[in-house]
Design brief:
single chain, 514 residues, alpha+beta, BirA Bifunctional Protein, domain 2, Rossmann fold, 3 domains, 5-stranded mixed beta sheet, 18 helices, 23 strands
Length: 514
Protein backbone atom coordinates (compact mmCIF):
# COMPACT_ATOMS: atom_id res chain seq x y z
CA UNK A 1 0.00 0.00 0.00
CA UNK A 2 2.77 2.41 1.00
CA UNK A 3 4.48 1.53 -2.26
CA UNK A 4 1.32 2.41 -4.19
CA UNK A 5 1.11 5.73 -2.37
CA UNK A 6 4.69 6.46 -3.43
CA UNK A 7 3.82 5.70 -7.05
CA UNK A 8 0.83 8.03 -6.80
CA UNK A 9 3.05 10.84 -5.44
CA UNK A 10 5.43 10.28 -8.33
CA UNK A 11 2.56 10.50 -10.84
CA UNK A 12 1.43 13.81 -9.32
CA UNK A 13 4.92 15.31 -9.59
CA UNK A 14 5.34 13.87 -13.08
CA UNK A 15 2.12 15.61 -14.10
CA UNK A 16 3.54 18.92 -12.92
CA UNK A 17 7.09 18.46 -14.20
CA UNK A 18 5.98 17.57 -17.73
CA UNK A 19 3.22 20.14 -18.22
CA UNK A 20 0.18 17.93 -17.69
CA UNK A 21 -1.45 19.30 -14.52
CA UNK A 22 -0.55 22.29 -12.32
CA UNK A 23 -2.15 23.42 -9.06
CA UNK A 24 -4.47 26.33 -9.85
CA UNK A 25 -2.95 29.79 -9.24
CA UNK A 26 0.33 28.06 -8.47
CA UNK A 27 2.28 31.27 -7.82
CA UNK A 28 -0.14 31.96 -4.93
CA UNK A 29 0.46 28.45 -3.56
CA UNK A 30 -2.59 26.93 -5.23
CA UNK A 31 -6.28 26.72 -4.47
CA UNK A 32 -7.66 23.61 -2.77
CA UNK A 33 -9.04 20.97 -5.14
CA UNK A 34 -8.73 23.19 -8.21
CA UNK A 35 -6.22 22.40 -10.97
CA UNK A 36 -5.05 23.73 -14.33
CA UNK A 37 -4.11 21.59 -17.30
CA UNK A 38 -0.80 22.44 -18.95
CA UNK A 39 0.42 22.23 -22.53
CA UNK A 40 0.47 18.42 -22.62
CA UNK A 41 -2.45 17.92 -20.25
CA UNK A 42 -4.85 19.91 -22.38
CA UNK A 43 -3.99 17.82 -25.45
CA UNK A 44 -4.52 14.56 -23.58
CA UNK A 45 -7.76 15.87 -22.10
CA UNK A 46 -9.01 17.01 -25.50
CA UNK A 47 -8.23 13.57 -26.95
CA UNK A 48 -10.19 11.86 -24.15
CA UNK A 49 -13.12 14.18 -24.82
CA UNK A 50 -12.90 13.57 -28.55
CA UNK A 51 -12.86 9.80 -28.02
CA UNK A 52 -15.99 10.05 -25.88
CA UNK A 53 -17.80 12.56 -28.10
CA UNK A 54 -17.18 10.66 -31.29
CA UNK A 55 -18.13 7.34 -29.71
CA UNK A 56 -21.48 8.89 -28.78
CA UNK A 57 -22.37 11.31 -31.56
CA UNK A 58 -20.49 9.86 -34.53
CA UNK A 59 -21.18 6.18 -33.88
CA UNK A 60 -24.86 6.56 -32.93
CA UNK A 61 -27.28 7.99 -35.43
CA UNK A 62 -29.79 8.59 -32.65
CA UNK A 63 -27.47 10.60 -30.34
CA UNK A 64 -26.89 14.33 -30.82
CA UNK A 65 -24.87 16.80 -28.80
CA UNK A 66 -25.55 20.13 -27.12
CA UNK A 67 -23.59 22.71 -25.17
CA UNK A 68 -25.80 24.24 -22.48
CA UNK A 69 -24.85 27.20 -20.29
CA UNK A 70 -23.32 26.69 -16.85
CA UNK A 71 -25.76 29.19 -15.31
CA UNK A 72 -29.35 27.99 -15.30
CA UNK A 73 -32.63 29.34 -14.02
CA UNK A 74 -32.53 28.82 -10.23
CA UNK A 75 -35.82 26.86 -10.30
CA UNK A 76 -33.95 24.14 -12.23
CA UNK A 77 -32.18 23.17 -9.02
CA UNK A 78 -35.32 23.28 -6.93
CA UNK A 79 -37.00 20.93 -9.43
CA UNK A 80 -34.03 18.57 -9.64
CA UNK A 81 -33.86 18.27 -5.86
CA UNK A 82 -30.36 19.74 -5.56
CA UNK A 83 -31.39 22.73 -3.44
CA UNK A 84 -32.96 20.50 -0.80
CA UNK A 85 -30.94 17.33 -0.99
CA UNK A 86 -27.51 17.78 -2.60
CA UNK A 87 -25.80 17.65 0.77
CA UNK A 88 -22.87 16.09 2.58
CA UNK A 89 -23.04 15.45 6.35
CA UNK A 90 -20.19 17.42 7.93
CA UNK A 91 -18.55 17.34 11.33
CA UNK A 92 -15.81 19.56 12.80
CA UNK A 93 -13.12 18.70 15.30
CA UNK A 94 -13.03 21.53 17.85
CA UNK A 95 -9.33 21.11 18.63
CA UNK A 96 -7.83 20.95 15.14
CA UNK A 97 -10.63 23.12 13.64
CA UNK A 98 -10.62 20.65 10.73
CA UNK A 99 -13.82 19.72 8.93
CA UNK A 100 -14.66 16.18 7.80
CA UNK A 101 -17.43 14.32 6.05
CA UNK A 102 -19.10 12.20 8.73
CA UNK A 103 -19.93 9.49 6.18
CA UNK A 104 -16.30 9.32 5.05
CA UNK A 105 -15.04 9.00 8.64
CA UNK A 106 -17.38 6.05 9.18
CA UNK A 107 -16.56 4.43 5.84
CA UNK A 108 -12.86 4.66 6.72
CA UNK A 109 -13.62 2.93 10.01
CA UNK A 110 -15.40 0.13 8.11
CA UNK A 111 -12.32 -0.13 5.86
CA UNK A 112 -10.16 -0.50 8.99
CA UNK A 113 -12.06 -3.67 9.95
CA UNK A 114 -11.54 -4.91 6.37
CA UNK A 115 -7.81 -4.22 6.70
CA UNK A 116 -7.64 -6.14 9.97
CA UNK A 117 -9.29 -9.14 8.32
CA UNK A 118 -6.94 -8.91 5.33
CA UNK A 119 -3.93 -8.82 7.67
CA UNK A 120 -5.08 -11.95 9.53
CA UNK A 121 -5.59 -13.72 6.21
CA UNK A 122 -2.15 -12.68 4.93
CA UNK A 123 -0.48 -13.87 8.17
CA UNK A 124 -2.24 -17.25 8.03
CA UNK A 125 -1.44 -17.66 4.34
CA UNK A 126 2.23 -17.21 5.13
CA UNK A 127 2.05 -19.66 8.03
CA UNK A 128 0.14 -22.46 6.24
CA UNK A 129 1.54 -22.06 2.72
CA UNK A 130 -0.08 -24.16 -0.02
CA UNK A 131 -2.34 -25.98 2.45
CA UNK A 132 -4.14 -22.71 3.29
CA UNK A 133 -7.90 -22.74 2.76
CA UNK A 134 -8.96 -19.07 2.86
CA UNK A 135 -12.68 -19.77 2.84
CA UNK A 136 -12.42 -22.08 5.83
CA UNK A 137 -10.11 -19.67 7.66
CA UNK A 138 -12.40 -16.64 7.34
CA UNK A 139 -15.43 -18.61 8.51
CA UNK A 140 -13.74 -20.22 11.54
CA UNK A 141 -10.95 -17.98 12.85
CA UNK A 142 -12.30 -16.24 15.99
CA UNK A 143 -10.43 -12.97 15.41
CA UNK A 144 -11.61 -12.72 11.80
CA UNK A 145 -15.17 -13.52 12.87
CA UNK A 146 -15.04 -10.80 15.51
CA UNK A 147 -13.77 -8.17 13.03
CA UNK A 148 -16.35 -9.24 10.45
CA UNK A 149 -19.17 -8.99 12.99
CA UNK A 150 -18.06 -5.50 14.02
CA UNK A 151 -17.78 -4.45 10.38
CA UNK A 152 -21.24 -5.76 9.49
CA UNK A 153 -22.91 -4.27 12.55
CA UNK A 154 -21.29 -0.90 11.83
CA UNK A 155 -22.26 -1.07 8.16
CA UNK A 156 -25.87 -1.81 9.02
CA UNK A 157 -26.10 0.97 11.60
CA UNK A 158 -24.43 3.43 9.22
CA UNK A 159 -26.66 2.53 6.24
CA UNK A 160 -29.76 3.01 8.38
CA UNK A 161 -28.57 6.40 9.68
CA UNK A 162 -27.84 7.58 6.12
CA UNK A 163 -31.17 6.30 4.83
CA UNK A 164 -33.06 7.96 7.68
CA UNK A 165 -30.99 11.13 7.30
CA UNK A 166 -30.34 10.79 11.05
CA UNK A 167 -27.47 13.20 11.76
CA UNK A 168 -27.50 12.61 15.56
CA UNK A 169 -27.04 8.90 14.97
CA UNK A 170 -24.10 9.56 12.61
CA UNK A 171 -22.41 11.55 15.38
CA UNK A 172 -23.20 8.82 17.92
CA UNK A 173 -21.60 6.21 15.65
CA UNK A 174 -18.43 8.32 15.43
CA UNK A 175 -18.34 8.60 19.24
CA UNK A 176 -19.16 4.91 19.86
CA UNK A 177 -16.48 3.76 17.42
CA UNK A 178 -13.93 6.02 19.15
CA UNK A 179 -13.03 7.70 15.85
CA UNK A 180 -10.43 10.41 16.43
CA UNK A 181 -9.41 13.42 14.33
CA UNK A 182 -6.26 12.43 12.41
CA UNK A 183 -4.73 15.88 13.11
CA UNK A 184 -5.51 16.52 16.80
CA UNK A 185 -6.01 12.89 17.82
CA UNK A 186 -9.06 13.92 19.92
CA UNK A 187 -12.75 13.01 19.97
CA UNK A 188 -13.88 16.57 20.55
CA UNK A 189 -16.48 16.59 17.76
CA UNK A 190 -19.25 19.10 16.96
CA UNK A 191 -22.72 17.94 15.92
CA UNK A 192 -23.15 16.71 12.35
CA UNK A 193 -24.76 19.23 9.98
CA UNK A 194 -25.88 19.03 6.38
CA UNK A 195 -23.84 21.12 3.97
CA UNK A 196 -25.11 21.90 0.47
CA UNK A 197 -22.46 21.33 -2.19
CA UNK A 198 -23.67 23.92 -4.70
CA UNK A 199 -21.75 27.16 -5.21
CA UNK A 200 -23.95 30.25 -5.21
CA UNK A 201 -23.46 33.54 -6.96
CA UNK A 202 -25.63 36.46 -8.05
CA UNK A 203 -26.81 37.73 -11.42
CA UNK A 204 -27.91 41.33 -11.90
CA UNK A 205 -25.92 44.54 -11.63
CA UNK A 206 -27.29 45.83 -8.33
CA UNK A 207 -27.62 43.92 -5.11
CA UNK A 208 -31.31 44.86 -4.98
CA UNK A 209 -32.15 43.55 -8.43
CA UNK A 210 -29.86 40.58 -8.14
CA UNK A 211 -31.02 37.05 -7.77
CA UNK A 212 -29.17 34.04 -6.46
CA UNK A 213 -28.11 31.48 -9.00
CA UNK A 214 -25.92 28.39 -8.78
CA UNK A 215 -22.94 27.05 -10.65
CA UNK A 216 -24.28 23.76 -12.04
CA UNK A 217 -23.23 20.73 -9.97
CA UNK A 218 -23.91 18.39 -12.92
CA UNK A 219 -24.29 18.97 -16.64
CA UNK A 220 -27.31 16.64 -16.89
CA UNK A 221 -29.92 19.29 -16.04
CA UNK A 222 -28.85 21.32 -19.09
CA UNK A 223 -29.89 18.30 -21.15
CA UNK A 224 -33.21 17.73 -19.36
CA UNK A 225 -34.34 21.34 -19.77
CA UNK A 226 -33.48 21.13 -23.50
CA UNK A 227 -35.28 17.82 -24.08
CA UNK A 228 -38.22 19.44 -25.90
CA UNK A 229 -36.02 21.83 -27.93
CA UNK A 230 -33.83 19.04 -29.24
CA UNK A 231 -36.58 16.48 -29.73
CA UNK A 232 -38.69 18.93 -31.75
CA UNK A 233 -36.00 20.71 -33.79
CA UNK A 234 -34.07 17.50 -34.43
CA UNK A 235 -37.27 15.50 -35.05
CA UNK A 236 -35.82 12.86 -32.78
CA UNK A 237 -37.65 9.58 -32.34
CA UNK A 238 -37.48 7.62 -29.12
CA UNK A 239 -35.12 5.99 -28.25
CA UNK A 240 -32.62 8.84 -28.65
CA UNK A 241 -29.83 10.44 -26.69
CA UNK A 242 -28.41 13.90 -25.97
CA UNK A 243 -24.72 14.16 -25.14
CA UNK A 244 -22.84 17.01 -23.52
CA UNK A 245 -19.36 17.79 -22.23
CA UNK A 246 -18.95 20.64 -19.78
CA UNK A 247 -17.79 22.01 -16.47
CA UNK A 248 -19.52 21.21 -13.19
CA UNK A 249 -18.84 22.63 -9.74
CA UNK A 250 -19.16 21.13 -6.26
CA UNK A 251 -17.99 22.60 -3.00
CA UNK A 252 -16.31 19.34 -1.97
CA UNK A 253 -15.19 19.32 1.64
CA UNK A 254 -12.94 16.32 1.54
CA UNK A 255 -10.73 17.34 -1.34
CA UNK A 256 -8.05 14.72 -1.71
CA UNK A 257 -6.32 12.50 -4.20
CA UNK A 258 -5.27 15.14 -6.67
CA UNK A 259 -7.73 15.49 -9.58
CA UNK A 260 -9.92 12.64 -8.32
CA UNK A 261 -12.15 14.94 -6.30
CA UNK A 262 -12.18 18.53 -7.49
CA UNK A 263 -14.30 21.61 -6.85
CA UNK A 264 -14.31 22.53 -10.55
CA UNK A 265 -14.32 19.56 -12.89
CA UNK A 266 -15.62 18.42 -16.23
CA UNK A 267 -18.30 15.84 -17.00
CA UNK A 268 -19.24 13.94 -20.16
CA UNK A 269 -22.89 13.01 -19.79
CA UNK A 270 -25.40 11.40 -22.08
CA UNK A 271 -29.11 11.11 -21.34
CA UNK A 272 -30.82 8.40 -23.33
CA UNK A 273 -34.61 8.82 -23.56
CA UNK A 274 -36.57 5.57 -23.78
CA UNK A 275 -40.08 4.22 -23.62
CA UNK A 276 -41.26 3.43 -20.05
CA UNK A 277 -40.91 -0.28 -19.37
CA UNK A 278 -37.86 -0.68 -21.63
CA UNK A 279 -35.46 1.15 -19.35
CA UNK A 280 -33.88 -1.86 -17.64
CA UNK A 281 -33.00 -3.43 -21.00
CA UNK A 282 -31.40 -0.16 -22.07
CA UNK A 283 -29.64 0.10 -18.73
CA UNK A 284 -28.05 -3.33 -19.33
CA UNK A 285 -27.14 -2.31 -22.89
CA UNK A 286 -25.47 0.94 -21.82
CA UNK A 287 -23.52 -0.81 -19.06
CA UNK A 288 -22.03 -3.06 -21.73
CA UNK A 289 -21.40 -0.25 -24.21
CA UNK A 290 -19.65 1.93 -21.68
CA UNK A 291 -17.48 -0.88 -20.32
CA UNK A 292 -16.41 -1.70 -23.90
CA UNK A 293 -15.45 1.98 -24.40
CA UNK A 294 -13.15 1.83 -21.38
CA UNK A 295 -11.65 -1.52 -22.23
CA UNK A 296 -10.87 -0.54 -25.85
CA UNK A 297 -8.00 1.48 -24.37
CA UNK A 298 -6.23 -1.80 -23.66
CA UNK A 299 -5.61 -1.32 -19.93
CA UNK A 300 -6.74 -4.89 -19.11
CA UNK A 301 -10.23 -6.10 -18.17
CA UNK A 302 -8.98 -7.05 -14.69
CA UNK A 303 -8.58 -3.34 -13.87
CA UNK A 304 -12.28 -2.57 -14.18
CA UNK A 305 -15.34 -3.67 -12.29
CA UNK A 306 -18.98 -2.75 -11.88
CA UNK A 307 -20.18 -1.70 -8.47
CA UNK A 308 -23.95 -1.90 -8.37
CA UNK A 309 -25.54 0.53 -5.91
CA UNK A 310 -27.24 -1.10 -2.88
CA UNK A 311 -28.89 2.13 -1.93
CA UNK A 312 -30.67 3.76 -4.84
CA UNK A 313 -31.57 7.43 -5.03
CA UNK A 314 -35.35 7.75 -4.64
CA UNK A 315 -35.79 8.45 -8.37
CA UNK A 316 -33.57 5.63 -9.68
CA UNK A 317 -34.54 2.04 -10.35
CA UNK A 318 -31.01 0.79 -11.14
CA UNK A 319 -27.53 2.26 -10.86
CA UNK A 320 -23.97 1.08 -11.19
CA UNK A 321 -20.49 2.57 -11.08
CA UNK A 322 -17.69 1.61 -13.43
CA UNK A 323 -14.66 1.45 -11.18
CA UNK A 324 -11.01 1.47 -12.22
CA UNK A 325 -8.04 0.22 -10.25
CA UNK A 326 -6.21 3.42 -9.21
CA UNK A 327 -3.05 3.30 -7.06
CA UNK A 328 -5.38 4.01 -4.09
CA UNK A 329 -7.80 1.16 -4.86
CA UNK A 330 -10.79 0.56 -7.15
CA UNK A 331 -12.55 3.91 -7.59
CA UNK A 332 -15.58 5.19 -9.46
CA UNK A 333 -14.83 6.76 -12.82
CA UNK A 334 -18.29 6.62 -14.37
CA UNK A 335 -21.89 6.12 -13.29
CA UNK A 336 -24.64 4.50 -15.34
CA UNK A 337 -28.05 5.32 -13.90
CA UNK A 338 -31.63 4.45 -14.71
CA UNK A 339 -33.28 7.70 -13.56
CA UNK A 340 -36.89 6.83 -14.45
CA UNK A 341 -38.93 9.88 -15.55
CA UNK A 342 -38.09 11.79 -12.39
CA UNK A 343 -36.21 14.75 -13.88
CA UNK A 344 -38.53 15.39 -16.83
CA UNK A 345 -41.61 15.09 -14.59
CA UNK A 346 -40.15 17.47 -12.05
CA UNK A 347 -39.31 20.05 -14.73
CA UNK A 348 -42.82 19.68 -16.16
CA UNK A 349 -44.25 20.30 -12.69
CA UNK A 350 -42.07 23.31 -11.85
CA UNK A 351 -42.18 24.96 -15.31
CA UNK A 352 -45.84 24.26 -16.03
CA UNK A 353 -44.83 23.00 -19.51
CA UNK A 354 -45.97 19.69 -20.92
CA UNK A 355 -42.82 17.63 -21.36
CA UNK A 356 -43.86 14.47 -23.15
CA UNK A 357 -43.26 12.38 -26.24
CA UNK A 358 -45.96 11.60 -28.73
CA UNK A 359 -45.36 8.16 -30.17
CA UNK A 360 -46.67 8.24 -33.77
CA UNK A 361 -46.71 4.46 -33.98
CA UNK A 362 -48.94 3.83 -30.97
CA UNK A 363 -50.65 7.23 -30.87
CA UNK A 364 -49.87 7.58 -27.18
CA UNK A 365 -48.06 10.29 -25.22
CA UNK A 366 -45.77 9.60 -22.32
CA UNK A 367 -42.94 11.10 -20.26
CA UNK A 368 -39.81 9.29 -21.41
CA UNK A 369 -37.64 7.35 -18.98
CA UNK A 370 -33.94 8.11 -18.94
CA UNK A 371 -30.74 6.10 -18.83
CA UNK A 372 -27.81 8.33 -17.97
CA UNK A 373 -24.13 7.65 -18.55
CA UNK A 374 -21.99 10.11 -16.61
CA UNK A 375 -18.21 10.15 -16.61
CA UNK A 376 -15.74 12.66 -15.16
CA UNK A 377 -13.13 13.83 -17.69
CA UNK A 378 -10.62 14.48 -14.91
CA UNK A 379 -11.08 11.04 -13.32
CA UNK A 380 -10.70 9.47 -16.72
CA UNK A 381 -7.53 11.53 -17.22
CA UNK A 382 -6.25 10.33 -13.86
CA UNK A 383 -6.94 6.68 -14.67
CA UNK A 384 -5.11 7.03 -18.01
CA UNK A 385 -2.11 8.66 -16.31
CA UNK A 386 -2.00 6.10 -13.49
CA UNK A 387 -2.13 3.16 -15.84
CA UNK A 388 0.38 4.61 -18.31
CA UNK A 389 3.08 5.75 -15.87
CA UNK A 390 5.89 3.23 -15.89
CA UNK A 391 9.43 3.14 -14.50
CA UNK A 392 11.31 0.68 -16.61
CA UNK A 393 14.69 -0.94 -15.97
CA UNK A 394 16.72 -1.02 -19.18
CA UNK A 395 19.29 -3.62 -20.21
CA UNK A 396 22.11 -1.14 -19.63
CA UNK A 397 21.03 -0.76 -16.00
CA UNK A 398 19.47 2.70 -16.46
CA UNK A 399 15.87 3.44 -15.56
CA UNK A 400 13.57 5.27 -17.94
CA UNK A 401 10.23 6.81 -17.07
CA UNK A 402 7.81 6.22 -19.89
CA UNK A 403 4.15 7.12 -20.23
CA UNK A 404 2.65 4.23 -22.14
CA UNK A 405 -0.35 6.28 -23.23
CA UNK A 406 -2.64 4.75 -25.85
CA UNK A 407 -1.20 6.38 -29.01
CA UNK A 408 -4.60 7.83 -29.91
CA UNK A 409 -4.68 9.79 -26.63
CA UNK A 410 -1.03 10.92 -26.59
CA UNK A 411 -0.62 14.72 -26.63
CA UNK A 412 2.14 14.62 -29.26
CA UNK A 413 2.23 11.85 -31.82
CA UNK A 414 5.57 12.45 -33.51
CA UNK A 415 8.78 14.17 -32.38
CA UNK A 416 11.01 15.28 -35.23
CA UNK A 417 14.64 15.44 -34.12
CA UNK A 418 17.62 16.62 -36.18
CA UNK A 419 20.73 14.74 -35.02
CA UNK A 420 22.72 17.99 -34.93
CA UNK A 421 21.81 21.66 -35.16
CA UNK A 422 23.74 22.27 -38.39
CA UNK A 423 24.50 21.00 -41.90
CA UNK A 424 20.92 21.54 -43.10
CA UNK A 425 19.43 18.91 -40.74
CA UNK A 426 17.17 21.37 -38.84
CA UNK A 427 15.79 22.65 -42.15
CA UNK A 428 15.05 19.09 -43.32
CA UNK A 429 13.36 18.34 -39.98
CA UNK A 430 11.22 21.45 -40.21
CA UNK A 431 10.19 20.48 -43.72
CA UNK A 432 8.90 17.14 -42.35
CA UNK A 433 6.95 18.92 -39.58
CA UNK A 434 5.41 21.29 -42.13
CA UNK A 435 4.26 18.30 -44.16
CA UNK A 436 2.85 16.18 -41.36
CA UNK A 437 1.34 18.71 -38.95
CA UNK A 438 -1.94 18.73 -40.84
CA UNK A 439 -2.36 15.04 -40.06
CA UNK A 440 -1.30 14.75 -36.42
CA UNK A 441 0.42 16.69 -33.66
CA UNK A 442 4.18 16.95 -34.34
CA UNK A 443 6.89 18.53 -32.27
CA UNK A 444 10.28 19.77 -33.45
CA UNK A 445 13.09 19.42 -30.86
CA UNK A 446 16.76 20.23 -31.36
CA UNK A 447 18.07 20.86 -27.84
CA UNK A 448 20.25 18.29 -25.99
CA UNK A 449 21.59 14.93 -27.09
CA UNK A 450 19.38 12.51 -28.97
CA UNK A 451 19.31 10.23 -25.90
CA UNK A 452 17.99 13.02 -23.67
CA UNK A 453 15.43 14.04 -26.27
CA UNK A 454 14.17 10.45 -26.50
CA UNK A 455 13.77 10.37 -22.69
CA UNK A 456 11.80 13.63 -22.69
CA UNK A 457 9.51 12.25 -25.38
CA UNK A 458 9.08 8.97 -23.45
CA UNK A 459 8.13 10.98 -20.37
CA UNK A 460 5.28 12.74 -22.19
CA UNK A 461 4.15 9.53 -23.87
CA UNK A 462 5.04 10.49 -27.47
CA UNK A 463 4.61 7.21 -29.39
CA UNK A 464 7.04 7.97 -32.24
CA UNK A 465 10.28 9.89 -32.78
CA UNK A 466 12.10 10.34 -36.08
CA UNK A 467 15.75 11.30 -36.28
CA UNK A 468 17.12 13.19 -39.24
CA UNK A 469 20.82 12.48 -39.91
CA UNK A 470 23.28 13.27 -42.67
CA UNK A 471 22.14 10.25 -44.73
CA UNK A 472 18.61 11.68 -44.75
CA UNK A 473 19.79 14.48 -47.01
CA UNK A 474 20.89 11.85 -49.51
CA UNK A 475 18.34 9.02 -49.25
CA UNK A 476 15.28 10.88 -47.88
CA UNK A 477 14.92 8.26 -45.13
CA UNK A 478 14.73 8.79 -41.37
CA UNK A 479 15.14 6.58 -38.29
CA UNK A 480 11.75 5.90 -36.74
CA UNK A 481 11.80 4.96 -33.03
CA UNK A 482 8.92 3.24 -31.27
CA UNK A 483 8.31 4.49 -27.69
CA UNK A 484 7.39 1.13 -26.19
CA UNK A 485 9.81 -1.26 -27.85
CA UNK A 486 12.51 1.39 -28.43
CA UNK A 487 13.12 -0.35 -31.74
CA UNK A 488 14.48 1.78 -34.55
CA UNK A 489 13.79 1.28 -38.24
CA UNK A 490 14.85 3.17 -41.30
CA UNK A 491 11.84 4.39 -43.30
CA UNK A 492 11.31 6.74 -46.26
CA UNK A 493 9.97 10.19 -45.29
CA UNK A 494 7.27 9.68 -47.90
CA UNK A 495 5.89 6.70 -45.89
CA UNK A 496 5.76 8.41 -42.48
CA UNK A 497 2.19 9.61 -42.76
CA UNK A 498 0.78 6.23 -43.73
CA UNK A 499 2.82 4.37 -41.09
CA UNK A 500 1.81 6.68 -38.22
CA UNK A 501 -1.55 8.27 -38.98
CA UNK A 502 -3.73 5.23 -38.58
CA UNK A 503 -2.13 4.16 -35.30
CA UNK A 504 -2.46 7.54 -33.61
CA UNK A 505 -5.94 8.53 -34.72
CA UNK A 506 -9.05 8.43 -32.56
CA UNK A 507 -10.59 6.41 -35.41
CA UNK A 508 -8.30 3.50 -34.49
CA UNK A 509 -10.02 3.38 -31.08
CA UNK A 510 -13.51 3.91 -32.46
CA UNK A 511 -13.09 0.98 -34.83
CA UNK A 512 -12.71 -1.31 -31.83
CA UNK A 513 -16.19 -0.33 -30.67
CA UNK A 514 -18.15 -1.46 -33.71
N1 LIG B 1 -25.50 13.41 -13.42
C1 LIG B 1 -25.07 12.36 -12.56
C2 LIG B 1 -23.90 12.69 -11.77
O1 LIG B 1 -23.42 13.82 -11.76
P1 LIG B 1 -22.17 11.67 -10.11
O2 LIG B 1 -21.93 10.23 -9.74
O3 LIG B 1 -22.37 12.65 -9.02
O4 LIG B 1 -23.42 11.63 -11.10
C3 LIG B 1 -20.68 11.50 -12.24
O5 LIG B 1 -20.98 12.15 -11.03
C4 LIG B 1 -19.18 11.45 -12.47
O6 LIG B 1 -18.62 12.75 -12.35
C5 LIG B 1 -18.42 10.61 -11.45
O7 LIG B 1 -18.43 9.24 -11.81
C6 LIG B 1 -17.04 11.22 -11.52
O8 LIG B 1 -16.30 10.67 -12.59
C7 LIG B 1 -17.32 12.68 -11.82
N2 LIG B 1 -17.24 13.50 -10.59
C8 LIG B 1 -18.20 13.69 -9.67
N3 LIG B 1 -17.77 14.52 -8.69
C9 LIG B 1 -16.49 14.84 -9.01
C10 LIG B 1 -15.50 15.67 -8.40
N4 LIG B 1 -15.75 16.35 -7.28
N5 LIG B 1 -14.28 15.76 -8.99
C11 LIG B 1 -14.02 15.10 -10.15
N6 LIG B 1 -14.93 14.32 -10.77
C12 LIG B 1 -16.14 14.19 -10.22
Amino acid sequence: MAQQEDVFKKIISHCKEYGFVFPSSDIYDGLGAVYDYGQNGVELKNNIKQYWWQSMVLLHENIVGIDAAIFMHPTTWKASGHVDAFNDPLIDNRDSKKRYRADVLIEEQIAKYEDKIAKEVAKAKKRFGDAFDEQQFVTTNPRVIEHAQKRDALHERYAKAMNDNDLDELKQIILDEGIVCPISGTRNWTDVRQFNLMFKTEVGSTAEGASTIYLRPETAQGIFVNYLNVQKTGRMKIPFGIAQIGKAFRNEIVARQFIFRMREFEQMEMQFFVKPGTELDWFAQWKKTRMAWHQALGFGAENYRFHDHDKLAHYANAATDIEFRMPFGFKEVEGVHSRTNFDLSQHAKYSGKKIEYFDPETNESYTPFVIETSIGVDRMFLSVMCHSYCEEKLENGETRVVLRLPAALAPIKLAVLPLVKKDGLPEKAEEIVRQLRFHFNCKYEEKDTIGKRYRRMDAIGCPYCVTIDHDTLVDNCVTLRDRDTMQQTRVPIADLQSIIEDKVSITSLLKKLI
